[in-house]
């Protein structure tokens, strides 16, 4: 899988945003994908037998040529997945309404705008108009006033897909707000309460990457199981490609590994690069207990988000000096 | 911390150390329940320093003088100081052999 970032512009400014460092703020240059690059991206998907074009931003629907990109991707036989904050311009919304739900899904992150009434109102309008084309999601980035079951009311109200994709905000670059592993237990309690109510209301809850199994008690896990929650204990980086073709294995890891002109490399090459640079760190995880945990060792749990593990690393250089006799002992043989 | 301060706890003056070691540029580490993981990510290698080795790593990272490290090591292992010193030497030699530490100019 590979996501293409159409633009770094966004009409919101969210504290949790994992693309914050790459976003086009006032002091940063605006980046927009050209049609040539978009065509190259679709060719790239063809080359590796990938049927889904995954478009993100910024807010991807703000790209002035978004409708043209969408038409082109569909004409090339791709299904399209759009990662949106829900603040979709009306002309784009009108176009999306005409596309068959099987061909296009808009994943709308309801965290965007942080519940600001005007934003939430627009998100509800968009969810209503897109109906089965829209799948709501939520990124937990703080615990105060967290009211996850309210999201179920929005699903009932709007008639969008009866699913809810739940993520935890992960550290990305230097500036976003994220959930610390010490808070995971509290997150688990909120998510379990959500799952219990979602099950009753026939809404399917799905986990995004970065959750760890041990954040849930056995009782909570049985609630998730009983309510058919799609659990996942993995960290599965998907390559993100910026408008200028800078490529990295998800935004959260962009600080550690960036490959220029990613569309010129095949996916195996990119994966090999990732393996050589970062996979050695998989031996451990977000907690000090991860490396000796049976679930981690047997790869039933990834140990959480690799970007969180990276935060645990220390790079302080050690420099020690030894006198002549000691040096002789240290270096001989 | 000066070299003199590092090496001079017996009162001897060490004006010029003959060797300095620095951790390799690519080295990062973290402390886990199992011990200290030392990573050299660019060559896909890691080492797990467990038990006393993890303690020695921490003391070196914290910049403790060699004699203090040796005294602590002797106390923990309940061995004479000279024997403890040999243990510390073996550990440093291991770090150098594995190129976790490299000779610095």
Q: In words, what does this structure look like?
A:
The complex is a heterodimer of chains A (333) and B (105). Chain A has 333 residues and is α/β, with parallel strands linked by helices. Chain A has helices at 35-47, 66-75, 90-97, 117-130, 150-158, 184-200, 218-226, 267-277, 294-297, 306-312, 324-331; strands spanning 2-5, 52-56, 79-84, 104-109, 134-140, 163-168, 204-207, 239-241, 247-248, 319-322. Chain A has one domain: Aldolase class I (TIM Barrel). Chain A contains 11 helices and 10 strands. Chain A has a 9-stranded mixed sheet with strand order 7-6-5-4-3-2-1-8-9. In chain A, α4 (117-130) packs across α5 and α6 runs parallel beside α7 (218-226). The model of chain A has no long low-confidence stretch (mean pLDDT 92). Chain B is α+β, with helices and mostly antiparallel strands. Chain B has one domain (5-24, 50-103). Chain B contains 4 helices and 5 strands; from the N terminus they run αββββαααβ. In chain B, the strands form 2 sheets. Chain B has a 3-stranded antiparallel sheet. The radius of gyration of chain B is 14 Å and the shape is globular. Chain B starts with a helix and ends with a strand. β10 of chain A pairs antiparallel with β1 (19-23) of chain B, so a sheet runs across the interface.
């Amino acid at each position: 899988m590979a996501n293409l970032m159409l633009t770094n512009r966004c009409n919101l400014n969210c504290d949790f945003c994992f693309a914050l460092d790459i976003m086009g703020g006032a002091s940063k240059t605006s980046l927009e994908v050209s049609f040539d690059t978009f065509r190259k991206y679709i060719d790239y998907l063809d080359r590796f037998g990938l049927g889904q074009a995954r478009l993100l931003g910024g807010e991807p629907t703000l790209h002035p040529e978004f409708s043209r990109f969408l038409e082109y991707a569909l004409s090339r036989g791709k299904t399209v997945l759009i990662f949106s904050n829900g603040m979709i311009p009306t002309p784009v919304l009108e176009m999306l309404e005409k596309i068959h739900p099987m061909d296009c899904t808009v994943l709308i992150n309801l965290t965007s705008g942080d519940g600001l009434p005007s934003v939430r109102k627009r998100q509800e309008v968009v969810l209503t108009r897109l109906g089965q084309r829209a799948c709501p999601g939520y990124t937990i980035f703080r615990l105060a006033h967290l009211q996850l079951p309210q999201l179920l009311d929005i699903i009932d109200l709007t008639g969008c897909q009866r699913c809810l994709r739940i993520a935890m905000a992960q550290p990305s670059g230097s500036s976003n707000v994220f959930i610390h592993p010490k808070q995971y237990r509290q997150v688990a309690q909120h998510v379990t309460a959500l799952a219990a109510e979602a099950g009753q209301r026939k809404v399917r809850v799905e986990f995004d990457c970065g959750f760890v199994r041990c954040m849930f008690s056995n009782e909570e896990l049985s609630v998730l199981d009983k309510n058919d929650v799609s659990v996942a204990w993995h960290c599965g980086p998907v390559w993100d490609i910026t408008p200028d073709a800078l490529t990295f294995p998800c935004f959260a890891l962009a600080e550690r590994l960036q490959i220029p002109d990613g569309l010129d490399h095949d996916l195996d090459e990119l994966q090999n690069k990732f393996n050589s640079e970062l996979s050695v760190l998989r031996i451990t995880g977000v907690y000090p207990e991860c490396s000796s945990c049976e679930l981690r060792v047997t790869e039933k749990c990834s140990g959480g988000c690799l970007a969180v593990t990276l935060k645990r690393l220390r790079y302080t250089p050690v420099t020690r000096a030894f006198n002549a006799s000691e040096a002789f002992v240290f270096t001989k043989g | 911390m000066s070299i003199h301060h590092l090496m001079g706890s017996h009162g001897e003056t060490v004006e010029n150390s003959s060797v300095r070691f620095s951790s390799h540029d690519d080295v990062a580490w973290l402390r886990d329940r199992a011990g200290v993981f030392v990573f050299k990510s660019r060559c896909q290698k890691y080492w797990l320093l467990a038990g006393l080795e993890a303690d020695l790593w921490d003391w070196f990272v914290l910049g403790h003088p060699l004699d203090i490290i040796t005294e602590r090591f002797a106390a923990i292992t309940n061995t004479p100081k000279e024997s403890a010193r040999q243990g510390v030497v073996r550990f440093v030699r291991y770090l150098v052999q594995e190129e976790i530490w490299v000779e610095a100019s």
